[in-house]
Amino acid sequence: MPLTYAYFREVGGEFNNINIHSVSLNGHVDTRDWLFISEARDSDGTKLNIKKIDSDVSCKSSCTTKEFFVIDLDKTYLYKHAQTGIHIKIYGKRGTALINLPAPYVQGFLNYLNKSGAQVEI
Q: Model-level pTM?
């Protein structure tokens, strides 16, 4: 099974004196062969907007490929999954990879957004 690393990212700035931010789930899939990321769905079957943003190969005694991705999310989605966590399956031409973010991780990020006063929009 491929190794998958993921973290929330908040990007933002000020627009008309209002802090407007977007939230994304950034990460990468590490495999011995290319996954060729094409689609992502959560545990409810909802198709998520995933974009492959880069790729890399690292070779020492064997080679590992990394496919970097970003999944756009909104605050409503985070609140909906605050108690259950976020479970996403990434599909590619050559297999799948899983992302599991536990409820405390989602809740912690929501607490951060609320304390920062950021108005999150996508």
A: 0.81
């970003």: which residue's tokens?
70
The DSSP bridge pattern shows strands 119-120 and 3-15 to be unpaired
Residue bearing tokens 């190969």: 57
CA distance 47 to 25: 14
- Rounded-to-integer distance, Cα 43 and Cα 27, Å: 18
pLDDT tens per residue, range 75-103: 889 899 999 999 999 999 999 999 999 99
Q: Are 26 and 49 in contact (CB under 8 A)?
A: no
Residue 59, beta-bridge partner list? 63
The rounded distance, in Å, linking the Cα atoms of 39 and 30 is 16
